[in-house]
Write a structure and sequence with these properties.
alpha+beta; 6-stranded antiparallel beta sheet; two-stranded antiparallel ribbon; 2 helices; 10 strands; 43% strand
Length: 175
């Protein structure tokens, strides 16, 4: 059952990422991390982040408290961001009372390390986008590691526990 779920989630991630990059206005992006850019006839601007630039972004994420903006582009359709996250310890991961994203689905690709992703359950809501006062109760636990893709819908409580460093992932928000 888990293999079928993983195959479906991987397929959805590929479709979501492809849809984001399909729009021609997205093809011409700004790169805060100094990515290499080139132009191919009829296809717009392609932005490439080689492993050295990606590793530098993960290092910057660690020094910034866990996250770093890798790429951003604003167009009439909205703002599109790609971020790197480096969770070297449980302290840098989402708190046990949870994380949640408003207005977007997060497509996440794990680059290294491992963690237990807890999705769903209940927590006491104290303000929009913040959960406090108690840990998540219930929910589903999934062990995730290098090469895994997972998709978190908007307003879905989630958090990481049992982090094995370096736990690093790339997050692509999809409206």
């Amino acid at each position: 059952m888990w293999n079928i779920r993983r195959a479906v989630l991987t397929g959805l991630a590929v479709v979501a990422i492809g849809a984001c990059w399909h729009a021609k206005t997205i093809a011409q992006g700004n790169s805060p991390s100094g990515a290499a850019q080139g132009r191919t006839a009829g296809t717009g601007v392609v932005t490439v982040f080689d492993h050295e630039k990606l590793n530098a972004s993960f290092a910057k994420a660690l020094s910034n408290g866990g996250s770093n903006l890798l790429w951003s582009h604003t167009s009439k359709q909205g703002t599109y961001n790609v971020s790197t996250h480096s969770r070297e310890s449980v302290k840098a991961a989402c708190q046990p009372d949870g994380c949640s994203h408003k207005d977007y689905t997060a497509v996440v690709y794990v680059v290294s390390g491992a963690a237990t992703l807890v999705i769903g359950g209940t927590a006491k809501t104290t303000a929009p986008d913040q959960f406090g006062g108690q840990s998540i109760q219930g929910g589903e636990s999934h062990r995730i590691s290098k090469g895994d893709v997972y998709i978190v819908p908007p307003d879905t409580i989630h958090w990481y526990k049992n982090v094995e460093s370096p736990f690093r992932y790339v997050e692509v928000p999809v409206p």
